[in-house]
Amino acid sequence: MQVIETLAEGLKREIKVVIPAKDMQDKMNERLADVKDKVRINGFRPGKVPAAHLKKVYGKSIMADLVNEIVREQPAAILSSRGEKSATQPEIAMTEDKDEADKILAAEQDFEFTLSYEVLPPIELKSVKGIKVTREVIDISDDEVNEQVLKVAESARAYETKTGKAANGDRITMDYVGKVDGEAFEGGTDQGAELVLGSGRFIPGFEDQLVGVKAGDEKTITVTFPADYPAKNLAGKEATFDVSVKDVAAPADVEINDELASKLGIESADRLKEIVRGQIESQYGSLTRQKLKRQILDQLDEMYKFETPNSLVDAEYNGIWSQVNNDLAQSGKTFEDEDTTEEKAREEYKTLAERRVRLGLVLSEIGEKAGVEVSEDEMQRAIYDQLRQYPGQEKQILEFFRSQPGAAASIRAPIFEEKVIDHLLTEIDVTDKKVTKEELLAEEEGETKAETKKAAPKKKAAKAEAAEAGEGEEAAPKKKAAPKKKAADESAE
């Protein structure tokens, strides 16, 4: 077998592989000899089939198997012998001429194919001793814990039916039918819907018009959907809602006590406060780590400058750009609305893609040299977390992970990256700094890289941002078109 390098330009490589026809014929004859005693052909005793007849019957299929085995196994062996790692799966090109293909299968012509790929650039690791980061920490006050506990209590507040008129703070139960131009629209009908007046859950003007209603009242409400309403067919349009009030209930007093905790399935009020404090600590801890990780990545970005494989950058960029366009479509905005152009946005997100690929390669090299590994238990826990997000679809998701080789890698990669960050935190200079809640929540000054610029919708390529910062992003569940506000508003309740 001849292996001839025909292109070595930057990271691009092209390799021509030639396997002489005689070698292919020898391999075919070995296979024919192996099957001679196993096949059963009418008119011949077992093991007595002439070689020429065996070749006539099985030759082409054996050669086709040989060709498939070679193109499946040889690329990895060739790269290994050259000491190279391909950035992506090498592209394999073979003749498409039928006559030539027939000659190859008949062992009458050399078998040739070409490998095209980009190599991963060699990375010479530098000392990380000079990296200095500041870890922002915050003291959580009892007042903040109590405030959050009160919100939990209010979410579990009891309501008692009243006979009077509904006031702000009361909960009404209603049926409604929404119409635009006299026609009911999809998602605008509900029965037994509950709404606390003054909560701001529904679009502006809806709740105000229900103040003063009583159980049994029928009322038609007229509202205008916000111009940026997610459902484009409703955005900016006037609508009416025929409302039938079924019940009006007043809120009961909220008390933080063991009885409340028991209703929530917790043994005591003290334990409830402990749980809430732990949740707050976890939320602030995630933000602290996100900002800490950003500092590390920024300094690694300054330390390493090398050519990145276009195939990896393009794949990363395409993922970011797809998210950007999805955000634009959902918001109904354009690049001009965000004070930029598509051309500028593409440039900035291409820069972000290059940064992410470069840092990914650096972190991978650091992790490999440090012996960082992702255990089977960690993988199983991560897959289980995925399953919990999609109840009822567990079987399909497990099958997806089994059938798609890249699926497991997509689960492993973020775990590996976080473990590399953990390793770096043991090697670099970390200084703790007490900050206020406001300081922790504030965006860092100097974050002027492409990912922080408002190039496209203000999510700043949310998918790429979240991945780089170590966060996960879940898709918001679909909601009824009316009369609720956008999901972002509801999640703040």
UniProtKB/TrEMBL annotation:
The Swiss-Prot or TrEMBL record describes its family as follows:
Belongs to the FKBP-type PPIase family. Tig subfamily.
What taxonomic lineage is listed for the species of origin? Bacteria, Pseudomonadati, Pseudomonadota, Alphaproteobacteria, Hyphomicrobiales
Q: Which NCBIfam families match?
A: tig
Is Magnesium included in the keywords of this UniProt record? no
- Protein task: Involved in protein export. Acts as a chaperone by maintaining the newly synthesized protein in an open conformation. Functions as a peptidyl-prolyl cis-trans isomerase.
User: Pfam families annotated for this entry?
Assistant: FKBP_C (PF00254), Trigger_C (PF05698), Trigger_N (PF05697)
Hydrolase in keyword set = no
Domain PPIase FKBP-type as annotated: residue spans: 169-251
Q: Name one GO biological process term.
A: cell division
Subcellular localization: Cytoplasm
State the PROSITE patterns in the record: FKBP_PPIASE
Fill in the domain comment: Consists of 3 domains; the N-terminus binds the ribosome, the middle domain has PPIase activity, while the C-terminus has intrinsic chaperone activity on its own.
Sorted keywords for this record are: Cell cycle, Cell division, Chaperone, Cytoplasm, Isomerase, Rotamase
- UniProt-annotated stretches for the region Disordered: 440-493
Q: Which reaction does it catalyse?
A: [protein]-peptidylproline (omega=180) = [protein]-peptidylproline (omega=0)
Name the InterPro entries on file: PPIase_dom_sf (IPR046357), PPIase_FKBP_dom (IPR001179), Trig_fac (IPR005215), Trigger_fac_C (IPR008880), Trigger_fac_C_sf (IPR037041), Trigger_fac_ribosome-bd_bac (IPR008881), Trigger_fac_ribosome-bd_sf (IPR036611), Trigger_fact/SurA_dom_sf (IPR027304)
Provide the GO MF annotations for this entry: peptidyl-prolyl cis-trans isomerase activity; protein folding chaperone; ribosome binding
Corresponding gene?
tig
The name on file for this protein is Trigger factor
- Chief subcellular location equals cytoplasm
Q: What is its EC number?
A: 5.2.1.8
One GO location term (cellular component): cytoplasm
